[in-house]
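Researcher: We're teaching a course module on how sequence relates to structure. For the next exercise, students receive a sequence and then see the predicted structure as tokens, so they can try to spot secondary structure elements on their own. Here is the exercise chain.
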Amino acid sequence: VVLFKNAKDEFRTEASRNKWSVRDFSLDTSDVQQQKEEFENSIEKREKLKTDLIRWCKLNFSEAFENWAHLKIIRIFVESVLRYGLPRNFTCVIMDINPKKEKSLRSTFDKYYQSLATDYLQSGANDVAVAGASEKFYAYVFSDMSL
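Model: And here is the predicted structure for the students to work with:
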């Protein structure tokens, strides 16, 4: 608040009645200049850190994606061995499915792999509770990899 000198004491007493504290302010131009310089330095530092982060992400994205794909493959391998047992005799395929044709592809897979389905799946039950499975259960091993 900016006040005239003759109203300063009156304002201070009214403010203290309302439990406000009044402090004198003095403008120091050297502090203002120092704060400007710190602000400009922080902007430069932020831009440098941003470029470093972008460079790091570009370098490490391929490795992270590769590791994610390996984890998906390990999950499919383990789930297929647990479902169908040993000896391992399966083919792993990565497919880019058109969302419009997903339903027909699933029905084709269901017909083709009907021999692998349990009695519960063959009875027409769609919701099978499998421990550790967070996705829908099919007669074949399926894992979605949304990109």
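Model: If you want an answer key for the exercise: Helices lie at 8-17, 29-84, 102-112, 119-122. The chain is about 55% helix and 0% strand.
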